[in-house]
Amino acid sequence: MTPRRSAERTVRGPTPESVRAVHAGLVRARGRPPRQRRGDPLDCLIGTLLSQNTTGANSRAAFAELKRRFPTWQACLQAPTEAVIAAINCAGLARTRGPRIQAVLARIRHDQGELTLDALHETDSALAMTYLQSLPGVGPKTAACVLLFACRRQVFPVDTHVARIAVRLGWAAEGASPERIQERLEPLVPPALRYPLHVNLIAHGRLVCRAGRPRCAECVVREHCATGRRQ
Ligand code: SF4
């Protein structure tokens, strides 16, 4: 057994009371995020792939430019890869993302018979997670984002912000990967809280519990946080 696995065993995860208290504190501070309407799962998937390791502004600009140059996903798939890379350049890592987006589109067309993921709306969440994660470059966070935002499922994606806060709160072990934290946390977060807690934790991670020095003195969930209580 590796030392990391053994360290994870010492963190039992949050209690239901702790999850509800953090959710309530964040809602008091930031409000309850409005639920979006059902969206296009394929658009959401490509947008989420573009959002990794870049800012929201850059990924939105790259997605808009991709759609402007290639009004249909079929056009994007058939375009020269260099043209796709040029379209998404502002998101960074374009030489990795461009071929990956075309590989994802090719797989979907092969599997679905057309360039759509609309069938996910009628697919059980566990099966949908499995299918999405079988696509090139799609991990549990990206798959869960598609289901949460486009299909309005009650899943709990864990990105780097949510993972960092979970560790600081004492909900997850130091060094645990976001994938591992997602696997352990989702069953502990009541389904109705998964959407608002995910959205509010990301905002909290950007503004207060930042990657550098967290602003614990102004944190609304400090009394429920292992790190905050130590300071
Ligand atoms: S108390 Fe500090 S470490 Fe804990 S969630 Fe708030 S900002 Fe993050």
Characterize the structure shown.
The structure is a single chain. With 231 residues, the protein is an all-alpha fold. The longest helix has 19 residues, at 94-112. Residues 1-7 have low confidence and may be disordered. The chain has helices at residues 3-9, 16-30, 41-51, 56-69, 73-78, 81-87, 94-112, 125-133, 140-150, 160-169, 178-185, 191-207, 226-230. The chain has 2 domains: 3-34 and 156-230, Helix-hairpin-Helix base-excision DNA repair enzymes (C-terminal) (Endonuclease Iii, domain 2, Orthogonal Bundle); 41-150, Hypothetical protein, domain 2 (Endonuclease III, domain 1, Orthogonal Bundle), CATH 1.10.340.30. It is built from 13 helices and no strands. Bound molecules: iron/sulfur cluster. Residues 165, 168-169, 208-209, 214-216, 219, 221-222, 225, 227-228 line the site of iron/sulfur cluster.
Fold blueprint:
Elements (H helix, E strand, L loop, with lengths): L2 H7 L6 H15 L10 H11 L4 H14 L3 H6 L2 H7 L6 H19 L12 H9 L6 H11 L9 H10 L8 H8 L5 H17 L18 H5 L1
Bound molecules: iron/sulfur cluster.
The site of iron/sulfur cluster has 14 residues, from helix 10 and helix 13.
List keywords for this structure.
231 residues; Endonuclease III, domain 1; 2 domains; binds iron/sulfur cluster
The small-molecule ligands in this entry are: iron/sulfur cluster
Number of helices: 13
Distance between the termini: 33 Å
Helices and strands: which structural class? mainly alpha
Helical fraction equals 55-70%
- As a percent range, the share of strand residues is under 5%
Count of discrete domains:
2
Shape: globular
